[in-house]
Design a protein that fits this description.
The chain is mostly helical and about 350 residues long. Among the domains are: about 20-90, Winged helix-like DNA-binding domain superfamily/Winged helix DNA-binding domain (Arc Repressor Mutant, subunit A, Orthogonal Bundle), CATH 1.10.10; about 115-190, Orthogonal Bundle (Arc Repressor Mutant, subunit A); about 215-275, no CATH class. It contains 17 helices and two strands. It has helices at about 20-25, 30-45, 50-55, 60-75, 90-105, 115-130, 140-150, 155-170, 175-185, 195-215, 225-235, 240-255, 260-270, 275-305, 320-330, 330-335, 340-345, and strands at about 80, 85-90. α12 packs across α13 (about 260-270) and α15 (about 320-330) packs across α16. The longest helix is centred in the C-terminal third of the chain and has 27 residues, at about 275-305.
């Protein structure tokens, strides 16, 4: 190879900030990541490009290129100079500025001795950084850890568990996920490990109940179904067996299982102090007997309507409209007309 031929080969390297890989990349679309890397390369070589060049070089439509540039701008990764040209933002300098601003606001001095609470905070941050960020955690994550410690009042073990939960569910892509989870746990009254264990155990019971009911009913459980299940498990503290029995009772008189009807059964059991499945079965058997007796009494009462207990004979007796009207005004009149002396039916 001749020396002049080496210029024809693309052998240079493009430096990508670790901060971009750690904090920005996962929240961007593929087109935005491609555009950012291409901008890093061309501007590192002293060139400038616009949306048209990016679309052409990366085989993007004009709309896709415009959307990618908008994403990068909103994320703070690029900006435009006074001539409207795209320039790469110095995200590392911005990170340092935020760190200095936070320390100045908190009044932290470099020579100030570290207190035991600060040591615990630093140890927690280092542990999270090593475990979930492979030793490269941006400063904004430290800020979120401080927020959870001092504003939310979480114990360090609770914060670590929060990060672990998001990591295991592949949701540790951005700070927003951490904030959402922290607000959710704070709303549940979680502060220490004991609170967290109770909450997670309750969540597991809800999840298991939903799975079992979905399998038994052969349906995909909806958010409305989950709302009922949470009430039964968290508020009423009923086990799955009693919930299943309530739905079985509904199926006895309905072809479509109704969570609302099942809730009526469970609410009744709660009101009368029923806590176990045998108690619920005994209660329902007793209710069935009472309902059957009530039905028989009502049926007998309806059968007696219109019968004459005195054995009076109404055959062959007719009355005019005026006579019938007089019966309505004076009930004694109809009894007098039905008497044996009036009809001529003298008993022998």
């Amino acid at each position: 190879m001749k020396p002049e031929d080496r210029k024809k080969l693309l052998l240079s390297d493009t430096a990508v900030p670790d901060l971009f890989i750690s904090d920005y990349m996962s929240s961007l679309t593929g087109s935005a990541v491609q555009a950012y890397l291409y901008l890093l390369m061309v501007q590192g070589n002293g060139y400038g490009v616009g949306e048209k060049e990016i679309a052409s070089r990366l085989s993007l439509s004009p709309e896709e290129a415009k959307g990618a540039i908008a994403e990068l701008t909103l994320s703070g990764l690029i900006d435009r100079n006074e001539r409207g040209q795209i320039v790469i933002s110095d995200i590392k300098a911005s990170e340092v500025d935020r760190y200095i601003l936070r320390n100045n606001r908190d009044g932290i001095s470099e020579n100030e001795p570290i207190s035991p609470p600060d040591e615990a905070r630093e140890e927690l941050a280092r542990s999270i950084e090593r475990t979930f960020f492979h030793g490269s955690m941006a400063y904004k994550w430290y800020r979120e850890i401080d927020t959870m410690l001092f504003e939310f009042g979480f114990d360090p073990d609770v914060i670590y568990s929060l990060f672990q939960s998001l990591y295991e569910n592949n949701r540790l892509a951005g700070v927003s996920r951490v904030k959402e989870k922290a607000v959710e746990w704070q709303g549940k009254g979680i502060r220490n490990v004991r609170d967290l264990d109770a909450y997670l155990a309750s969540e597991e019971r809800v999840a298991v109940t939903l799975r079992k009911l979905g399998k038994r009913l052969r349906k995909k459980m909806t958010g409305f179904d989950e709302d009922y299940v949470r009430i039964w498990v968290e508020k009423m503290s009923f086990p799955y067996e009693m919930i299943e029995f309530a739905i079985q009772k509904v199926c006895e008189y309905s072809t479509v299982p109704s969570m609302k009807r099942a809730n009526e059964h469970l609410s009744t059991w709660l009101a009368v102090g029923i806590k176990t499945l045998p108690e619920a079965k005994a209660f329902e058997e007793e209710q069935a007997k009472l309902n059957s007796a009530r039905y028989q009494n009502e049926k007998a009462a309806k059968g007696n309507i219109g019968t004459n207990s005195s054995g009076q004979n109404f055959s062959g007796v007719t009355y005019t409209d005026e006579q019938l009207k007089s019966f309505e005004d004076d009930p004694e009149e109809i009894l007098r007309r039905y008497s044996p002396e009036t009809t001529g039916d003298i008993p022998r």
